[in-house]
TrEMBL record:
Pfam family of the protein (one): DUF2059
Name used for this protein in its record: DUF2059 domain-containing protein
Signal peptide feature range: 1-25
Domain DUF2059: start-end pairs: 109-154
Entry keywords, A to Z: Signal
InterPro entries, A to Z: DUF2059
Organism from which the protein derives: Polaromonas vacuolata
Amino acid sequence: MKKILSTLALAIATLALPGLVMAQAADPKQALAAKVVALQQGPELQRLIGQLADGTANDLLQNWAPKLQANVAEAKRKEVGDALNIELKKYFDDAAVIIGSKITQASNDALVPAYMASFSAEELQQLATFFESPVVKKYQTAAPQLGNSFIQRLVEITRNDIAARAAQFDVVAAKLIGTPTAKAAPAAKPAAKK
């Protein structure tokens, strides 16, 4: 009787999770796996959707930027470029919606079966309890800011080294392609002694 009640409570809780579609809601392990997948998808999921949409927008930009330069008169380039940027923003917004609308399907197709194969029903219940804890919810809320702070600091402390390495690449690329490199700025003269 206790097992039936816990299974029923789990099924009711799982049905309350937004967006998850259970092919076989009667399977308690599948319901637990779906619950764990839903619980772990915190604010970082929106960042992932944005990154994926941004990647596809960058692909379009890389394709069309050279065409803009080659096919549009310089006098009209800014106007056409601004119009393309507006369309690119619309594309990005639409791509994010499309990607976001497929999260449930991807979760059900890939993650739920993987969790079912990797964890027992008891382990899935422990994971669900973990993800429902207030500290994990707080962590999921704080994670984007923590990640941004780390990334900003990493960029700051590597900027000069990366720029120096990019300059080395430019020199080699210019030799390979046969184009002149930009001349280095003259070294600063030491201050006159008084």
